Amino acid sequence: MKDKVLKLFTFLSNLINKGHDRSVKAKKNILASFFIKGFSIAISLVLVPLTINYINPSRYGIWLTLSSIVGWFSFFDIGLTQGLRNKFAEAKTKGEDNLAQIYVSTTYAILAIIFSIVWIIFLIVNQFLNWTHILNISENMQSEISILAVIVFTYFCLQFVLKVITTLIIADQQPAKSSLVDLLGQILSLILIIFLVKTTQGSLIKLGIALCISPLLVLVGANIFFFRGTFKKYKPVFSKIKFSYAKGLFNLGIIFFIIQVAGIIQYESANIIIARHFGTVEVTSYNIVYKYFGVLNMVFLIFVTPFWSASTEAYLKNDIEWIKNGIKKYNLLNILLLIIGGIMLIFSQPIFNLWLGKGKVPISFYLSLWGFLYFSVTIFVAKYVFFLNGINALRIQFIASVISPFLYAIVALLLIKYYHLGVYALFIASIVANFNGILLAPIQYHQIINKNKKGIWIK
After folding, report:
1. What is the pLDDT of residue 250?
2. Which pLDDT value is given to residue 227?
3. What span, in angstroms and rounded, lies between the C-alpha atoms of 278 and 416?
4. Alpha carbon of 228 to those of 77, 133, 236: distances in Å?
5. Mean pLDDT computed over 133-160
6. Is residue 319 classed exposed, middle or buried when 0-12, 13-18 and 19+ CB atoms within 10 A define those classes?
7. Is the full-model pTM beyond 0.85?
8. Distance in angstroms (rounded) separating the CA atoms of residues 355 and 363
9. What number of CA atoms fall less than 13 Å from residue 299's CA on the CB side?
10. Does residue 19 register a pLDDT over 80?
11. How far is it between the farthest Cα atoms of the chain?
């Protein structure tokens, strides 16, 4: 038995360490990410029913909707973190450590300034907002929701600055460590929620504090740990803040910003549209399906996340064969996940009953079906989009992103108001609006890699 275990260990070790250094690094991160993401998914699945039982489905829907509204303020990032991801990877690949440190220091400074101003403005404006009207809820909850909004928004602003460290970790092709940071935040959140369930009555404010403070504490620790260790030579310092270098970040960042806007509108506005047209209980139903089939996306992201920064390096070194092989393997993985997703769809209702409690949250088969189809499309397009992002070939995606939010809103409202479809209309609208990933991104990849075309394809 001992010999068999040793042989298996040797086989796996050889499999992982075989190939290009870039591939070996990716495989090690993928393997580590599997264990980390496995725990993350498990905690996420436990947190949902625990939280719903603590405050009830309607209030959980309020929490999700408010979080979505606050999420819109990520516009103020202006794509800086994604711009930093590529600029940092390029500078590190070329051995320009001083330039990398300048980009890191400047990004921290700009984000700190932006979100300090945004936070102050929000504190002033929040006093005049009628949250009960915005969320379509009882007026006696105005004071509670107003306080919760301040808590969530404060968390949002702080984490946006602190999460720069996870951008650097991913840019360094170590996504497993970034996932570990998120996992530690989830574990702390779970501990605090269990404590609240055991010791207090259901409270949105207490829930908000628990879910917001946990990831912030972990992010503070991560910044200290990595800038004293792995990224010591890139540590942000005042002397390295060079706003003249911000132009390079902004030029690339503004393109990522417009692209992010499309994603934010499609994801964050869904909860708002559902709350306004169907009620906050349906927000919970939609998000349950999103989390359930989102597992497929989480698994695929474990494999595809290293591909972004690895593509930056491979393309700079003209290693086209490595890129082609990567896409082929991702296509095979897409097929496997499609089969798994189909099985998840077939058994979705019994799983929901087991997970949440029978009849606790109403979920129709059509909502599950379109949730499955949406994530099937999402994992198909991710590999092409990540490659194009990695080599800064963003022009076509940029143009499509200007169109897609309008297309999403129009299709969603038409399906709801004139065709009287249910909540699943939001998934249908998201698929239609993702025409860039479904059609244009694969064509662009083919033109660049297989036909060596330049011009608009590489811009």
Report:
1. 63
2. 93
3. 10
4. 26, 48, 11
5. 84
6. middle
7. no
8. 13
9. 18
10. no
11. 71
